[in-house]
Amino acid sequence: MRRLIAGNWKMNLLRAEAEPLLASLCAGAAGLECDLLVCPPATLLSLAAMALSGSPIALGGQDCHAAARGAHTGDIAAPMLRDAGARYVIVGHSERRADHRETDADVRAKAEAAVAAGLVPIVCVGESESERMAGRAESVVGRQLDLSLPDGFAGAIAYEPVWAIGTGRIPSAEEIASMHLHIRSRLTGRFGAAGAAVRILYGGSVKPDNAGSLLRLPEVGGALVGGASLDAVSFLAIARAG
Ligand code: PGA
User: Fold this and answer.
1) Which domain holds residue 193?
2) For 50-96, how does the pLDDT look when each residue is reduced to its tens digit (9 = 90+)?
3) How far is CA 181 from CA 8, 149, 221, in A?
4) Given this model, what pLDDT does residue 175 score?
5) Which CATH number do you get for residue 101?
6) Choosing a second label site near 167 at 20 to 30 A (CA), which of 41, 83, 117, 225?
7) Probe target for ligand 1 pocket from 159, 160, 235, with the most ligand atoms within 8 Å of CB
8) d(CA 5, CA 76)
């Protein structure tokens, strides 16, 4: 399975900052053995679509609404992302779950809307620090998967322990490997052979110096990268490790 290295720009970058970053990514993407994806904020989607056209780098959104259109001020529908050139969309990121109180049911509805619009959803799951300390990480993630994934799921998963995002702290190699195996067994248990084909990304403080070892762990099918995706040298170094 080819690895997917996805950059989540979050609420960062203006046009003047995005343009040179995209140009450097395009220049450095040739010959990579992984799939590369960038997820800019909505204001930069059109700019990014133009900059990436003709490159192997795919474009994604950071969130979508569950409805295809309508009276939802400030929200963005999945068909709009598709129309802007996106092929992927992140749904259920822990920052959306926390900042906007998104529930697993909301995330499931968004993943369904994404698929209906022809997008590949990247569904994020992950435990808090207190849940891990209490020995509940696998059960929390299992429940998130049960409730956040639509039937017939065709997308990717990003396992992102909430306490590892933007903190520079990551779980041990054993903890990551064991969680990814757990996620794989839930996927095959529910979706059969289709569940074996789902890419399971790791996210949370992925950097050039830890990417190689993380990406070699069993069932780690790529990375969802926040901070380090805002710098072309770092992001490409992570991609080369994949
Ligand atoms: P980080 O963010 O790489 O800055 O920890 C990852 C994410 O939130 O997707």
Assistant:
1) 4-241
2) 999 999 999 999 999 999 999 999 999 999 999 999 999 999 999 99
3) 24, 17, 11
4) 97
5) 3.20.20.70
6) 41
7) 160
8) 24
3-state secondary structure 98-130: HHCCCCHHHHHHHHHHHHHCCCEEEEEECCCHH
Ligand 1 atom, smallest distance to 205 CA:
5
Low-confidence ranges of the chain (pLDDT < 50): none
| Predicted local confidence at residue 192, as pLDDT | 97
CB 156 within 8 Å of CB 119: no
Split into its structural domains, the chain has a count of: 1
Please say whether the beta carbons of 19 and 47 come within 8 A: yes
Helix or strand (DSSP H, E) at 182: helix 173-191
Task: Give the number of other Cβ atoms within 10 Å of residue 101's Cβ.
Answer: 8
Of 102, 112, 131, 160, which residue is the catalytic one? 160
For residue 198, give the amino acid letter. V
Which ligand 1 atom is nearest residue 158's CA? 9
Residues 220, 213: Cα–Cα separation, whole Å: 10
Q: Under a CB-based contact definition with an 8 Å cutoff, are residues 181 and 140 in contact?
A: no
Q: Which amino acid is at 207?
A: K
* pLDDT number for residue 242: 80
Cα-to-centroid distance, 40 and ligand 1 (Å) = 13
93 is catalytic: yes
